[in-house]
Amino acid sequence: IDVFLARSLLEKLYLFQYPIRPASMTYDDVTHLSAKIKPKQQKVELEMAIDTLNPNYCRSKGEQIALNVDGTCTDETSTYSSKLMDKQTFCSSQAASNVSRYAAAVYKKGELHLTPLHGILQLRPSFTYLDKADAKHREREAANEGGDSSQDEAEDDVKQITVRFSRPETEQARQRRVQSYEFLQKRQAEEHWVHLHYYGLKDSRSEHERQYLFSQGHGLAENTELIKSPSEYLMMLMPPSVEEENDKPMAPSNVLSMAQLKTLPLADQIKILMKNVKVMPFANLMSLLGSGTDSTAVLRCIQQVAMLVQGNWVVKSDVLYPKDTSSPHSGVPAEVLCRGRDFVMWKFTQDRWVVRKEVAAVTKLCPEDVKDFLEHMSVARINKGWEFMLPYDEDFVKKHPDIVQRQHMLWMGIQAKLEKVYNLLKEHLTPKKQEAQSAHPLLVSGEQRVSMAKAKVKQNYGQLEKELQKQKAEMKSHDTSVKMDVSNIHIKEEPVSDEEPMDTSVYEGMNNGIVNGLHVEEDPTDLNGHLPGGCIDRVAQELKAFVSSTFKKQFVLTLSELKRLFNLHLASLPPGHTLFSGISDKMLQDMVLDTGCKQILVPFPPQTAASPDELKVYALWEAGDTYDQHRQVLLEIFSKNYRVRRNVIQNQLSQECGEDLNKQEVDRVLK
After folding, report:
1. How many other CB atoms are there within 10 angstroms of residue 315's CB atom?
2. What is the pLDDT of residues 248-301, one digit of tens each?
3. Predicted local distance difference test score (pLDDT) of residue 342
4. For the purposes of burial, counting CB atoms within 10 Å of the CB of 445, is it exposed (0-12), middle (13-18) or buried (19 or more)?
5. Within a domain: residue 663?
6. Is residue 252, in this structure, part of any structural domain at all?
7. Residue 465 confidence (pLDDT) above 90
8. Sheet holding 119-125, edge to edge
9. What is the mean pLDDT of residues 633-652?
């Protein structure tokens, strides 16, 4: 199809968009009574006749409207001379500020002729006649009130007039006045209307004007705009949209697009993201910053604006509540809000659940502020409390132990400040265990099945132990004549009442046909119920290997933590392993001392709520590295006091070792 550019009506052609007409006004029978335009403003006002004879026209309503507007008398100033609403006025408004991309097209004989539009106007009904009716009503009321007053009172009272001289207008005041809405309205009203003559669709003048929609000359010389190279033509079709960028709607002050965000420095990007999201895993933060971002730089920046809580990053309180600000709810200063929010964050480092009443009781803040703190980082659960909104991020904790350790030390400092400010009691410092969390869900995962099985084995452990002792007693009574050389056998004769044996239970499926971890059919005990010497050696070797490898990783462990790690080790072993023969607490402690560890008698406070196993502390005395001497000095310090300041430790290390350690070396020894 050949395309031609018609230029005869250039800067003269407008597109009028009419509203949906009522049934009494169709396209065929519309009569334009008058039309006028303000060319500078591109504003049009049309007056159209309404077909009052149409069966869909409500005559009584039309008479009522005419009566309200003009009253009972009719003269030249009447809006509706026929005492009937027989016409409707339409006023225009610009549909688009930039119409250079629009054109009117006419297709004829395989040719498409385009005429650029000069304006697109939307016509809407004007209801100025209602204003006129209101004005008439007010005039009638004023006339009625004026008739009641006496003519003697008609004379005006003498009033004092105050004369004021206006100051000369400054340039700034003049610019403000020129840009004001009132001034612009006045300027628009000053432009005179230009009256137009309307020609109908079938009028000869209209048909003559329509011929200008076709290109008058088909020669290429007259259509130079279309003689372009392909690249120039493509540029004409899709020009760089500079104006569109200026016409974009302004976003709210608290909204920043990702495109604008990436133009900022990395530290500002992280601060803005954390301030908006408040809680975010490190992996999500890296994905938002885009590929190619250095994770080390991100870690350096994130620690300036956020704290680590359960492996996830939570924005710092002083970022959300800057200095010299206050609470929108209670007017509390930012410093008090930061302390209260830090307390909530610290509670979530201790437990996944926080109770709102407890936070309000400690911080003494209003409920709205406490609710804001909790909504930043947790989700409310019915009859349970507030749960931290994100799961524990084990991947980040495993990959970045140095960051985790540094954040832990920061939290220790925050905890010390909170203890002084809020006078925290012991129940506030120890995490609570909620019974509601132990309820079994309807869908049980594999890990939950394992924990349920282990709990069931714990319940049956006492009964299994009694049955084992009974079997041993019966075997002893039947075989008293049998004697054995027991010089190489360590006999397990520990009263149950004095010291409970360790819980070495594993999965429930491993205990089918097992007594204390041993298959009854393949019982390795001798006739007296004791383990053979070879089996004892294998158990000792396995236990020693476990203790050695554990202390080389951890260096310092309580008996409670060591027993927990040993139970996890047993759970990973196959059924029938030699360590299932029954390892008591005494055997485990003796093996710890045999592997080069020492018990550190830490003087814990007498009012501590720790269990006896948590008070027994064992440490690796010699690891064979360069820090053995420093570690021994540190353990000696903690054998005299359970809480020591860092500068005291650093001075003691320098005195004992005869060398000044830098901060990194002290951190490594402490870690």
Report:
1. 25
2. 555 555 566 777 788 888 898 899 999 888 999 999 898 888 778 888 999 999
3. 92
4. exposed
5. yes
6. no
7. no
8. 14-17, 119-125, 87-94, 43-49, 32-38, 194-196
9. 83
Range with lowest mean pLDDT among 195-199, 234-238, 423-427: 423-427
| Same-domain status, 645 and 562 | yes
Do 200 and 281 belong together in one domain?
no
Domain boundary among 422, 450, 470: 422
Do 201 and 330 belong together in one domain? no
Mean pLDDT, residues 572-600 taken together: 81
Starting at the edge strand that comes first in sequence, how are the strands of the sheet with 111-116 ordered?
Answer: 2-5, 111-116, 103-108
Q: Do 190 and 283 have their domain in common?
A: no
Residue 331 pLDDT: 84
For 435, other C-beta atoms within 10 Å of its C-beta total 7
Q: What letter represents residue 656's amino acid?
A: E
Query: How does DSSP assign 577-605, residue by residue?
Result: -GGGG---HHHHHHHHHHTTEEEE-----
- Whether 201 and 313 map to the same domain: the answer is no
Burial 526-552 (b: 16+ CB within 10 A, else e): bebbbbebebbebbbebbeebbbebbe
pLDDT band with cut points at 50, 70 and 90 for residue 551: confident
CA–CA dist 562, 346 (Å, integer): 27
For residue 31, tell me if it sits in a domain: yes
Domain co-membership, 207 together with 262: no
Question: How buried is residue 567: exposed, middle or buried, by Cβ count under 10 Å (0-12/13-18/19+)?
Answer: middle
**Residue ending a domain, choose from 378, 402, 422:** 422
Does one domain contain both 282 and 413? Answer: yes
Q: Are 106 and 113 within 8 A, CB to CB?
A: yes
Given a cut of 80, whether residue 224 has pLDDT beyond it is: no
Q: Tell me what the mean pLDDT of segment 554-560 comes to.
A: 87
Same domain, 265 and 200: no
Alpha carbon 84 to its chain's center: 62
Q: Which two tokens stand for residue 55?
A: 């069966």
pLDDT greater than 70 at residue 587: yes
Q: Cα separation of 596 and 548, whole Å? A: 9
The two beta strands, 279-280 and 103-108, are: unpaired
Whole-model pTM? 0.34
As a residue count, the chain comes to 671
In a domain, 512, yes or no: no
Per-residue pLDDT at 378: 93
Structural domain boundaries, residue 663: 533-670
What gap in Å lies between CA 316 and CA 410, rounded to an integer? 12
pLDDT at 124: 87
| Residue 315 pLDDT | 93
Q: Are β-strands 518-519 and 378-381 bridged in parallel, bridged antiparallel, or unpaired?
A: unpaired
Count of domains observed in the chain: 3
Average pLDDT over every residue of 652-666: 76
As a whole number of angstroms, the distance between CA 375 and CA 356 comes to 11
